[in-house]
Amino acid sequence: METMTCGCGEDRIPGILARGVVALTLAGPALAALAACVLVVVLWAVTRWRDGARAEREESFFDGFGRWEEEGAAEVEPPPVRGGGS
User: Fold this and answer.
1) Does residue 67 surpass a pLDDT of 60?
2) What's 27-49 look like in SS3?
């Protein structure tokens, strides 16, 4: 039995489809990783912008250590002693 082809490249279609599937398979994770990086950079920039625009300053854990000595013992209570035990 003879195969009838029109001579327009029908026999190359399976190879083209296979290469397209491989290209999509490789491009999908690469595009997802790129989109994740862009999203992280945008969220970092928005967070940094919001923190800079905030009027009040957050108090750090270490902010109160020098205050007791500067203002005097009568005005400010000394920090509690930790782990004193009995």
Assistant:
1) no
2) HHHHHHHHHHHHHHHHHHHHHHH
Which residues, including other chains, have CB under 8 Å from residue 77's CB and lie 6 or more apart? Answer: 68
d(CA 86, CA 72): 29
Amino acid, single-letter form, for residue 86: S
**How far is Cα 2 from Cα 70, in angstroms, rounded to an integer?**
101
> Own/partner pairs for 29-38, CB < 8 Å, 24+ apart?
none
pLDDT 10s digits, 69-85: 555 555 556 667 777 65
